[in-house]
TrEMBL record:
This is Mannosyltransferase. One of its GO terms (molecular function) is alpha-1,2-mannosyltransferase activity. It is a multi-pass membrane protein. Its EC number is 2.4.1.-. One of its GO terms (biological process) is GPI anchor biosynthetic process. Its main location: endoplasmic reticulum. It comes from the Eukaryota. It is found in: Endoplasmic reticulum membrane. Keywords: Endoplasmic reticulum, Glycosyltransferase, GPI-anchor biosynthesis, Membrane, Signal, Transferase, Transmembrane, Transmembrane helix.
Length: 570
């Protein structure tokens, strides 16, 4: 029997872990509402919120090429179910006069993020359910998950990768089901597995890389547990039928969205024209995952978004996201591989027969396969971004929480995640969102409303600004947005001088938004400014601050974003 003092210590440790998880969960929700100022990647806006703000709220937005009818590569189902629902809610509240000013830059930013933050607790539920099955401590795994900056920052943003991670978590729960008595449960979740796999594929076709190991694990499980071939076929038939039905739902929704056929026209036409409409839909059928794969399997297209060495996920991105946990997993993976090779040699030397695979084991080797197999498949593509790996946090924390692997590294883990949260949650392009908040208030100020003014907003050397956060209706022609991206000095100055030369009307205002690290470039353009606003902090990794300047008294301007109002007396 266990010593009473040992059980008491273990119980006290569990209580501390519960309290710590609750604190980190509150931090996740509170930081979302604050809100986080860091801007991770344009896709967090332009793969859902920006598109839905234009469709539902009728705001001026920029539609990315993936959502154009000429090149539909993204399903509209998940944007409608997430950002679309939240925008419909705040629109309804405003129309019902429950909230007179519900639609503003804050609610446009936070409402979709809040929904994703609520969804992120699917990860916590999954870890709690899966930890006993994979021989991990549930509360230590939950603390590792909730304390990771990947959960705090990436899983509270509107990325398709976030949804991919949540669907991967649900799939792992379904394939790892077990009765409370400890014996294996009957695999009755075939329909749900088919639905989630298909939905994940339509969300991001790369989901198949994550779903491969869970599906193989589930297949091996039902083959071993079912003695009746009829029952076995029944399981696979349910999965295939539900997968096909889900695919039809997605294809139908995407086809209606990306084609000119209107639902109103369908219901208002007679029988003969309805047949014509159905025929037209069939001709214009949109299958977004195939378009996505067709585009991304072309190396030339991937090169437009950036090419990376094939080992970037293993050597850079995994460490950038997960730190020491990724390194520990690599070390354990090599040990597992070495052990398996020794076992293979020993088995073949003793008898002639297959050595057996580790796929059906319930221990840590299988968790490593859940982690490294998707990573290996994603490494086959030349375009490799860190966010592509965020779904792997689930098998990684389960693996790290078993056998006390992460305990001796806890101080390093805490420091790593504090740094990551500060860098990506606050600093990285951190001035752009507050800048858009400031400009939205300026454009919609009472003075501007009573005396209509024309605004020209020129953004240079920043990430693409989400226009929806300016809260400008499509019918409002008072605001012009010019995105110069990373234009060189000559092109930038030519555009600024051109705008200055057209500066004729008395109620025209021209603002130039530019990081402090390239502030000196504007001074060479021969224009003057009457107002300067510095938003701090803002870190541009494309135009990083110089270390000598940071050590001087000018460090604040180097880590800031300037809003410069052009003077007429230039």
């Amino acid at each position: 029997p266990r010593a009473p003092w040992r059980c008491a210590v273990r119980g006290g440790s569990a209580m501390v872990a519960r309290a710590l998880w609750a604190l980190l969960a509150a931090l996740r929700a509170g930081w979302c509402l604050l809100p986080q100022s860091g801007y991770l990647h344009p896709d967090e806006f332009f793969q859902a919120p920006e598109v839905m703000a234009g469709d539902i709220l009728n705001l001026q937005v920029y539609y990315p090429w993936e959502f154009l009818s000429s090149s539909p590569c993204r399903t509209v189902v998940f944007p409608l179910m997430t950002s679309g629902v939240t925008y419909w809610v705040i629109k309804s509240l405003q129309q019902l006069d429950i909230c007179s000013s519900c639609i503003n830059s804050y609610t446009l930013l936070v409402s979709p993020r809040l929904l994703f933050t609520i969804f992120s607790f699917i990860l916590d539920y999954s870890v709690y359910r899966l930890a006993p099955f994979w021989e991990a401590d549930p509360w230590k795994a939950l603390v590792l998950l909730a304390g990771s900056y990947v959960t705090l920052v990436f899983y509270t943003r509107t990325f398709t990768n976030t949804l991919e991670g949540l669907l991967f978590a649900l799939l792992m729960v379904l394939v790892s089901s077990r009765k409370s008595s400890g014996s294996s449960a009957e695999p009755t979740s075939s329909p749900l597995i088919g639905i989630i796999t298909t939905a994940g594929f339509f969300n991001r076709p790369t989901f198949l890389a994550f779903a491969l190991m869970p599906l193989l694990y589930w297949t091996g499980f039902i083959v071993d547990s079912q003695k009746n071939i009829k029952t076995l076929i029944n399981h696979f038939l349910k999965l295939i039928l539900c997968a096909c039905f889900t695919a039809i739902v997605f294809i139908t929704a995407d086809t209606f969205y990306f084609t000119s056929v209107s639902l109103d026209n369908v219901y208002s036409t007679n029988k003969s024209s309805l047949i014509d409409v159905i025929a037209q839909l069939h001709e214009k059928m949109v299958v977004t995952p195939f378009n996505f794969l067709s585009y991304n399997l072309n190396p030339h297209n991937l090169a437009l978004h950036g090419s990376h060495p094939r080992v970037t996920h293993f050597t850079v991105n995994g460490i950038m996201l997960f730190g020491i946990l990724h390194i520990l997993a690599i070390g354990a993976g090599f040990k597992m591989l070495k052990k398996y090779v020794h076992r293979l040699v020993w088995v073949r030397s003793c008898y002639r027969g297959p050595p057996g695979l580790l796929v059906h084991s319930e221990g840590n080797p299988t968790l490593l396969l859940f982690y490294f197999v998707p990573l290996a498949f994603l490494s086959l593509f030349s375009h490799q971004e860190p966010r592509f790996l965020i779904p792997l946090i689930l098998p990684l924390v389960l693996f790290s929480a078993s056998l006390r692997r992460a305990v001796k590294w806890k101080h390093l883990i805490v420091m790593f995640n504090l740094l990551g949260a500060f860098l990506f949650g606050c600093l990285h392009q951190g001035g752009l969102i507050p800048c858009l908040f400031h400009l939205e208030q300026l454009i919609h100020s009472p003075v501007s409303s009573n005396h209509p003014r024309h605004y020209t907003l020129l953004f240079a050397h920043t990430y693409m600004p989400p226009r929806s956060l300016l809260n400008i209706k499509k019918t409002d022609m008072r605001v012009e947005i010019i995105d110069m991206a990373g234009s060189g000095e000559k092109t930038l100055c030519q555009t600024v001088e051109q705008q200055a030369s057209n500066f004729t009307c008395s109620d025209c205002h021209i603002f130039i938004i530019i990081p402090g690290t390239v502030r000196a470039t504007i001074t060479k353009c021969g224009v003057s400014f009457k107002n300067e606003t510095l938003i701090f902090p803002h870190l541009s990794m494309e135009d990083p601050p110089q270390i000598p300047v940071l050590s001087s008294g000018n460090w604040r301007s180097q880590l800031g974003l300037y809003i410069l109002e052009l003077s007429k007396d230039h």
